[in-house]
Amino acid sequence: MYKEDELLAQDGINAAKADDVEVKYLDVYMKGFIAGHARGYMDAYDIGYQEALMMVEPYSEGESGWCWADERA
Q1: Domain of 48, in residue numbers
Q2: pTM summary value
Q3: Which of these, 17, 11, 5, lies nearest to 54 by C-alpha position?
Q4: Apex CA 47: angle with CA 43 and CA 49, to 5°?
Q5: What would you report as the CA-atom Rg of the chain, rounded to the nearest whole angstrom?
Q6: What is the average pLDDT score of the chain?
Q7: SS3 at position 34
Q8: How far is C-alpha 46 from the chain's CA centre?
Q9: Structural domains counted in the chain
Q10: Beta-carbon neighbour count of residue 33 at 10 Å?
Q11: Residue 22's Cα: distance from chain center in Å?
């Protein structure tokens, strides 16, 4: 994994801990998504996204973090 991708993954975790999770988390998710697709793999956003989901779950069971963040943004 590239260093910048590791930083994106960490950003995903940090954003999930932030108070304004709706805005920052969605932004980090999209940056990681773009970076991952540009290199042909998904590691950067997958790691940050999944780790963050384990730490912050302000949505009902069955909903994805993406839907929750998108609706609140």
Answers
A1: 3-72
A2: 0.28
A3: 17
A4: 120
A5: 11
A6: 56
A7: helix
A8: 7
A9: 1
A10: 17
A11: 10
